[in-house]
Amino acid sequence: MVAAASVVTAVGTVAGLLTALDGDGRRDEARPVVTRSPRLAPLPAVPSASPTATATPTPTPSASPSPSRTTRRPSPSPTRQERADRAEPATTAGRLYRHPDSQLLDWVAAHPGDPRQPVMESRIGAHPAAVWFTDGTPSTITSRVGAVTSGGAAQGRVPVVVAYAIPDRDCGGASQGGASDLAAYDAWIDAFADGLGTGEVFVILEPDAIAQADCLDAGERADRFASLARAGRVLKAANPRARVYHDAGHSAWNAPGRQAALLRQAGAASAASSDGVFSNVSNFNPTSAEVAYTRRVLDGLGGPAGLGAVIDTSRNGNGAPAGGEWCDPDGRKLGRTPTLATGEARIDAYLWVKLPGESDGCRGAAGEFSPDYAYDLAR
Fold first, then answer.
1. Residue 85 bears catalytic tag
2. Which residues of 243-275 are buried (b: 16+ CB within 10 A; e: fewer)?
3. Residue 226: pLDDT above 70?
4. Are 245 and 204 in contact (CB under 8 A)?
5. Of 28, 208, 348, 376, catalytic
6. Beta strand 276-279 with 347-351: parallel, antiparallel or unpaired?
7. With contact defined as beta carbons under 8 Å apart, do 212 and 248 qualify?
8. Is there a contact between 268 and 311 (Cβ–Cβ < 8 Å)?
9. Measured at the alpha carbon of residue 30, what is the angle toward residues 24 and 34, in degrees to the nearest 5?
10. Which residue of the set 101, 106, 168, 170 is catalytic?
11. What is the CATH superfamily name and number for domain 18-378?
């Protein structure tokens, strides 16, 4: 993959990933990463219900949620409160918050007899993941963000939220959408910030918005970067314990020096608007490659010594596929378990930003949950 790393079309969550519902019942969704995970015992093969579409190896951005998709929650078993009562194992999740609502958990609850269900629930649904917010209107964003951050605070755990509503999102690709213009986006960020609460929270600010900015002309890029710098300041001013990370693309995209120069323009070198960078969202590059890459980006970025990086490890367990295939490629698997204890200098967290099992746009619409894909990743 050489270009964008994300492909989002809405806001939702896969097993382990969160989905925030807006006032109309729509969901906010998320994206993936690559890392080596412990070798798991082989599982019985289960026939896939549907064939996998073949994607072209054209570079594209990260895969995210679908803005207009509506998902109905099954009424039987466990309720959202019952899910919330099942805290994820501290030994694997550390202090990260596992939101109790996701597309994967909806599927698990609705398919108790499916032989894939236990594997998907234990290996994906039991772990914390990011919650995406992708609709570009501020009317309900404060309360929806607040529902996630307050849930984390109640458990003494750290939620991860993704702001994904920049105008001209995904340069018109599968995850296109966002606010109508930068003035509307600034208002959306203000409302988003009002929901952050007072506890610790990780904010993944606009995947692909910096690395993929070449689709804009020079003036549009400058305006976008100024708005992103403002967003970082607003988010951190609203909650000083919020940790805000800016888009570094991934290791097979822009060179570290070039990405650092773009990040500086977007305020990522200022402690007033940034805690560092994130990489590999909705991508598959090995964790080791992303660790080396983000350190070089941080070196080029300058700024306070405390700036760090977070890496998406949701789908990078087998590394990147050959030929740059990016759309729901076969042969991938879950990466490292989400944690705030990486053991790596300047690497603040391994996170599941992309929601495992949510499509890049080939096994379904971008952001749509695919049980076949989730099972393939988990086994």
1. no
2. bbbbbbbbbbbbebeebbebbbbbbbbbeebbb
3. yes
4. yes
5. 208
6. unpaired
7. no
8. no
9. 170
10. 170
11. 1, 4-beta cellobiohydrolase (3.20.20.40)
Q: Using the 8-state DSSP alphabet, how is residue 320 labeled?
A: P
Tell which residue, 5, 369, 352, 358, has the closest CA to residue 202.
352
Residues 129, 352 contacting (CB under 8 angstroms): yes
Residue for token pair 């695919």: 370
* Amino acid sitting at position 214: D
Label residue 221 left, alpha or beta by phi (over 0 means left) and psi (-120 to 50 means alpha).
alpha
Q: What is the pLDDT of residues 61-94, one digit of tens each?
A: 554 443 333 233 333 344 443 443 333 333 334 5
> pTM (2 decimals)?
0.80
Task: Indicate the SS3 state at residue 301.
Answer: helix
Catalytic pick among 135, 312, 348, 360: 360
For residues 283 and 361, the answer to whether their CB atoms sit within 8 Å is no
Assess whether 360 carries a catalytic annotation.
yes
217 part of the active site = no
Tokens of 254: 């822009």
